Design the sequence.
């Protein structure tokens, strides 16, 4: 089944490429990525466990749902007389929507003051924690030991009332997800603000330290760089100086990834890449077992956690009600969405965190929720 599923994804990715004539359109990006993930997981390299047929059925339902959504959007756009072109953007950061009767232009500009404030807010968390990590390393602790502590010192987000924990979960992690993308866009298609670029590099390095060698945001930054370059390469002039900056920046990311991998006592960089890419499939398979056994649905709470959990936390902090008064549906969602505990997805392969969006949809509404 995984071979057929990977082949289907590859065909849809190619059709998206033919229709949109670019690699970064949602259809090609989504199905192309899942084609690679499913094929990689099917190979079960380095002793990785195979996923069950049920897990692949869930993925199949999810990608069919995505395909139907794309058809719903693409066909009206193709045959509508009121829509000619939604993708025209010139080099002056001006997005143009061309309709039958008029042309609407929207100014796109980065609010640098707000971005600087976000950088400062991230440093408020990173600097003191980096000092603590450096002290631990001076005492002889390795990044591997520090990372193990990082993933195990906190209880579930729903139960933890420490300000530092709440700040990291609801403020810092959000900033770390958006700053790299903004910095890359500014580098390639914006004003190329040096303070923003340097600030992005600094918080990325400090975040690697604080997370005990976490490489996730290094990969995010690399993906942002590739995607923005693909989108903007025909719309902007890239000077030889900027090309050198991009090459140096890319080289730094590769060196950082390899160095952190070695520092965490991971012997094979290639194996690390493979596990990051394919591990979400067997990991989801393992995490689904207790969910299927429980038979309880969360009815959208899992998908809306980012909106519901801060509200519940605020109610708890103000003393309106305690954890024992939470509806059981919220407790179930919190339990099954806490994926920080380490599980083995293969012989000696430790994994946590990544399970794909389909996991949360399944938690909310089983197969219908995924569709």
Sequence:
């Amino acid at each position: 089944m995984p071979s057929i599923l990977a082949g289907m994804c590859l065909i849809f990715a190619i059709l998206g490429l033919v229709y949109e004539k670019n690699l970064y359109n949602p259809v090609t990006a989504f199905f192309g990525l899942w084609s690679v993930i499913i094929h990689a997981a099917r190979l079960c390299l380095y002793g990785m466990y195979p996923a069950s047929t049920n897990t692949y059925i869930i993925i199949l339902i999810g990608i069919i749902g995505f395909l139907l959504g794309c058809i719903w959007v693409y066909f009206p756009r193709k045959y509508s007389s009121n829509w000619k072109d939604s993708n025209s953007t010139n080099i002056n950061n001006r997005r143009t929507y061309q309709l039958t009767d008029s042309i609407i232009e929207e100014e796109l500009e980065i609010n640098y003051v707000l971005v600087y404030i976000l950088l400062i807010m991230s440093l408020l968390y990173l600097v003191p924690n980096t000092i603590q990590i450096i002290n631990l390393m001076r005492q002889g602790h390795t990044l591997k030991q520090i990372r193990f502590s990082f993933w195990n010192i906190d209880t579930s987000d729903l139960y933890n009332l420490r300000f530092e924990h709440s700040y990291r979960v609801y403020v810092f992690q959000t900033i770390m997800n958006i700053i790299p993308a903004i910095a890359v866009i500014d580098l390639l298609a914006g004003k190329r603000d040096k303070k923003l670029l340097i600030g992005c590099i600094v918080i990325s390095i400090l975040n690697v330290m604080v997370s005990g060698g976490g490489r996730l945001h290094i990969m995010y930054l690399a993906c942002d760089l590739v995607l923005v370059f693909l989108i903007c390469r025909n719309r902007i002039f890239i000077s030889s100086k900027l090309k050198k900056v991009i090459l140096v920046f890319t080289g730094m990311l590769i060196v950082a990834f390899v160095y952190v991998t070695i520092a965490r006592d991971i012997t094979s960089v290639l194996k690390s890449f493979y596990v990051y890419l394919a591990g979400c499939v067997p990991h989801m398979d393992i995490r689904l077992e207790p969910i299927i056994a429980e038979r309880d649905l969360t009815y959208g709470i899992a998908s809306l956690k980012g909106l519901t959990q801060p509200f519940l936390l605020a109610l708890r902090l103000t003393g309106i009600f305690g954890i024992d008064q939470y509806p059981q549906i919220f407790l179930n969602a919190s339990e099954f969405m806490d994926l920080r505990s380490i599980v083995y997805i293969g012989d000696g392969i430790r994994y946590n965190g990544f399970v794909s969006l389909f996991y949360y949809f399944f938690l909310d509404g089983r197969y219908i929720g995924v569709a």
In short: The first strand starts at residue 83 and ends at 89. Residues 53-79 form the longest helix (27 residues). The beta strands are 83-89, 94-99, 103-107, 343-346, 349-351. Residues 83-106 have pLDDT under 50 and may be disordered.
